Amino acid sequence: MKRHAMGFRQNNYDVCERVYSPAASVASKTTKVEVACTGEKAVAGAVKFNRRLMKIAGLGLFAIVFIFAFIGWPSSVIDNDDTHRKILAAVFLTGISLVALEDVIRLDKSAIMLVLASVMWTYHAAGYHPTLSMEGHHELQEELSKGLADVGSVILFLLPAMAIVESIDHMDGFAVVTAFIVRHTREKADRLMPMICFLAFFLSAVIDNLTATIVCIKILQRVVPHKQDWRHSCGGLAVVAANAGGAWSPIGDVTTTMLWIRHKISTAGTVTWLFLPSFVAAVLPLFGIWWQAKRCGPQHEREAEQKASAPMAASRESITSLIVGMCCILTVPVVKMVTGLPPYLGMMMALGIFWLISEITGLGETAHADEESVTIEIQKHGVPAALHKVDLSSLLFFTGVLLSVASLESAEVLSRYAEFMNDITNGSPLTLSILLGVSSSVVDNVPLVQASIEMFHKPMDDPLWQLVALAAGTGGSMLAVGSVAGVTLMGLEGVGFLWYMRRISFWAALGFVGGVGTYALQRMAFG
C-alpha cells in the first residue's frame, strides 16, 4: 500500500514536471510565435496579392484601351459616340481610383496621371481617324490645341508662382511671418490652425486660391517642420479656406473670374452676397479639423516644441524679399483687370520683375571663402538657386490631371453631365448648385461652370450665378483632386488621397452645406 502511494506521488510529480517544466513552457511559446508569424505572413501575402490585383486591373484596363485605340478595332468601341464617352469616363474613374489608392498599390500618382492622360487622348484621337481623314486630322488638332491652351495656361501660371514663393523662402522672406506665428503660438500651438485659416481665406481673395495655398504650405513647412500630421491637417484646412476665400472675390478663383468676365456676376454683388456664406464654409471646417487634429495628434509634444523654439530674427534682406515678392504677386490681379490678359502672363511678368530686382539689389547673394584658398567664390544665389527647388513631379501631376479632364471636355462628357444635372433638378438653382459642387469635387469645375454659362441665360447677379460661384469654389474642397489647391497640397506635402478623405473631406462637406445654407437664409431674409 505504501509502495502504491509512493508510485502515485511519483507519477503525479512526473505529470506536474511535464506540465510546468521550463522546456514545455518554451515549446508552447514557440508554437504560439510560429502561429502568429504564420498569420502575419498570410495577411502580408493577402495584402501583396490584392496590391498586385489592383495594379493589374487598373493598368490592364489602360493597356486594353490603348491597344484598341492603337489598332483602331473594334469599330463599335471606337466610333460609337455613347460607347466612346462611357469608356473615357470609366478609364478616368479608374485612374482617379489608382491615385486614391496610391499608398496601397505603391505607384506614384504623377506616373499614373501621365499614363492616364496619354491613354485617354490616344483613345479619343482614334475616333477622329486622323491618318485616314484630313478633316478628322484638322478637328483633332483643333481639340488638342484647345486642350493644350487650357492646360498650358494653368502650368505657366503655376511654374512662376511656385518659383516666386520658393525664391522668397530661399531668401528667408517667410522668416518674418514665421517669427510672428511662432511668437503668438509659443504658449499654445492650437493658435496656428486658425491663423493659417484666416490667412488663406483673405489672401486668396486678393491673389488667388492656388497662390495662397502655396504660400501657406511654405509657411507651415517652416513653422512645424517636424510635425507632419499636424502640418498636413493645417494644410488641408488651408485648401478649404483658400477655396472658400476665392469664392467671394471675382479674382480669387478661376470660376468666379469666368463668371465675372462673362458679365454674370458683379464685384459689388459678389462680395455683398457671398462673403458671409464663404466665411461660414471656411470657419465650420476650422472647428472640426481643429478638434480632430487635437484628438489624433500628441498635443503636449506640439506645445513643448513651440515653447522650446524661439522666434527667428528677420534680417533686412528677408523683409525686403517678402515685401518685393508679395508686391509682385499682387500685380497679377491688377494686370488681369486693367489689360484683360490671362493671369499666367501677369504671373510670368511678376517673376521677371522679382528676378530683376533681386539681381540688381543682390537679394539672396551669398559668398563664402574656399577652405583651401583665400579667394572668395560667389555661389548661385537668388532666383536661379531657388528654381532648383521647384517640385517638377507636382507640375507633371497637374499636367496629367488637366489633360485627362481636357479629353473628357473634348468628348462632351462633361457638357452631357451638366445637361443631365439640369434635367434631374428641373432648373432649381439651389439643387443644381449642390450637384455642381459635389461634381466639382471629382472633376474640374471649369468645364461644368462653362457648360452652365452656355445653358442658362439669367441676368447679372441672379441667385443662380452666385450659387454657381459659391458651389463651384467650395465644393472642390471635398476631395483632394477636386481643386488645383488640393492637388497642390498633394504634390508639395505628399498628402495621400485617402488621408484627405479621412481627415478633411467630411468637414469640407459640412462647410459646403453650411455655406449654401447660409446663402439660402440670406436670400430668404433680404430677398
Task: Quickly describe the structure.
This protein is mainly alpha-helical.
**Secondary-structure element sequence?**
HHHHHHHHHHHHHHHHEEHHHHHHHH
E-strand count:
2
Question: What level of helicity do the residues show?
Answer: over 70%
Mean pLDDT: 81
Q: Specify the overall morphology.
A: globular
Name the strands of the widest sheet in spatial order.
1-2
Q: In angstroms, what is the radius of gyration?
A: 29 Å
Count of DSSP helices? 24
Q: How many distinct domains?
A: 2
Structural class label: mainly alpha
Largest sheet: 2 strands, antiparallel
Q: Which stretches are low in confidence, meaning pLDDT under 50 for 5 or more residues running?
A: 1-6, 12-20, 299-308, 367-378
β-strand percent reads under 5%
Give the N-to-C terminal Cα separation: 108 Å
SSE order and pairing:
Layout: H1 2-20, H2 22-71, H3 75-79, H4 81-100, H5 102-105, H6 109-126, H7 134-170, H8 175-185, H9 192-206, H10 209-223, H11 228-247, H12 254-261, H13 267-296, H14 299-308, H15 316-339, H16 343-361, E1 367-369, E2 376-378, H17 382-387, H18 392-410, H19 413-425, H20 429-440, H21 445-455, H22 463-475, H23 484-493, H24 497-526
Antiparallel strand pairs: 1-2
